[in-house]
Design a protein that fits this description.
- The chain has a single domain, classed as Phosphatase 2c, domain 1, CATH 3.60.40.10.
- The radius of gyration is 17 Å and the shape is globular.
- Strands 1-12-9-6-7 form a 5-stranded antiparallel sheet. Strands 2-3-4-5-8 form a 5-stranded antiparallel sheet, with helices on one face.
- The protein is α+β, with helices and mostly antiparallel strands.
Length: 247
Amino acid sequence: MTRLSDKSIKVIAVKSVGPQHKNKNLCCQDFFAYKNDNKKIVAVVSDGAGSSKYGKIGAKTICETMMDVLWQTDLNHLKENIAFAIEAARDKLIINRFNKTKSVKNLRDFSATLVGVVYYKDKGLFFHIGDGSAIAFFYDNSYKISKPENGIFSCETFFYTVDDWQNHLRFTEFSKAKQLCLMTDGVTGFALKNKSTIEKKFMLPVLNFLKTEKNSKYAKKMLYNTINSAQATKISSDDKTFVWIGL
């Protein structure tokens, strides 16, 4: 079964500040961006590290740069252009006004993860640095996960601002998906049972609701309430971003 050509691509995206940051009177460090013309979609989410001074700026910069580059990119050279966009975002942070020394060493002050997707003509590519995750769901009820990458400790991850970011950039190709999800690690904790398995009690009701709900404002409100429920907050007190794409 394939997606009908006259169907539109539907996107519901939300983010929220976690209790950790609320208690410190800090704003949400996550950021997301997407562009959709009902034939092609590019979407990116990023989690600015709470331990970094300007993690939010790092997250915003990578999302906006990816959108600028990838929307116009030659799909035959997609992976190269993703790497180019990361380098471009890093260059922007080097000359950012908060980088007082204009040094690569100070990029750690802007640490942020990266999870994104490009989907066009039934072919998709996830690109990923760090934790968070991305999931493609198919018509036979199977799915493919772009898994979070952690360091030695479960709370340790990798950022596009590290010197060896190329060693942590991962790609996952897929085709003929019916739904896509991108999320930061604040959601991954209860969306995935483990790195290779979804948490069905959370994911399946959310997917079914978003797929069938025609009122996008109501769908967005309910998704926001879901990721901010008492149970979700108990599992993760971090900022949370969830982007759902219906194909």
